[in-house]
Write a structure and sequence with these properties.
With 308 residues, the protein is mainly β. 5% of the residues lie in helices and 43% in strands. It has one domain: TolB, C-terminal domain (Neuraminidase, 6 Propeller).
Length: 308
Amino acid sequence: MDRYCYFKIQSDICQLPTWDVKSPFKVAELINGKEVPYPTKHANKHFVCVQSVVIDKLDRLWVLDPANPQFKGVVKSGAKLYQYDLKTNHLVREYRFTNSVAPTDSYLNDLRVDTEREIAYITDSQLGGIVVLDLKTGDAYRALDNSSPKLLANLDAIEFESTGKWGNKVHSDGIELSHDGNTLYFTALTGNILYSVPTDALRNKTLTVSQRAAAVESENALNVPTDGMILVGSKLYMADLPVEGVWKYNLATGEGITIPLNEKVRWADSFAADSDGNIYFTCSQINYPVNQRVKYKLIKLTKITSTQ
């Protein structure tokens, strides 16, 4: 069995959504353990409610702003996706989403970028849906929506061992792209089914939404309620929310296990990986009342031995 070890992250970029805890900035870089507004304090003023920060294979930084603070509705300026150059920390391009793509009651949640085809795939966790964005032209559309139950939460609640029942309904949330870009994996947060869909179906504009939905398949009907996910090799790593752990699902064998760790992780979220296979995630503590939350953590998970 694989064994893993925790390490503190020395430098990373994290997002701070405008939910129930206010923050002086929306995106921060950790430098020597101190949060510094990214890319600048002034630029942070233009962010509304950043939900996802992703670095793609070309070392480009993407900042997804659903612009729906405290889930009270998308603000007039609308949801946006920003592209930054990590070498200069300069804004390269800003993508704006129309109301038909990101309606007032939407919440664009997570994204993955196909660097070969220059396509971004984005989940909507509030309404349920997957948005396809052509990064060359800026054109975007809702490839899948809540007309398909596979995009919606299939559980009434998540039962946490630590804090009890968490009854919020959150739809298509966690998302990951296969290494060749041909398959997209996703889950509803308040759900326990891992789905997959061929990306050529999502990109095919001649298909109707219902035809694309017919291409969605159940990858694992015995998954765990989870949030974000990351693919390393043939294994998807994600939160095992109810037990406050990390779940590993092997796409090649169809087997999944909760990784034995030496401590509980309070809602593992925002998974990422580096070229060495180290896994990074935050502990967002969403299921805990504000007065029971401890200092937020960024975790680096490193494999130290393996029998495989």
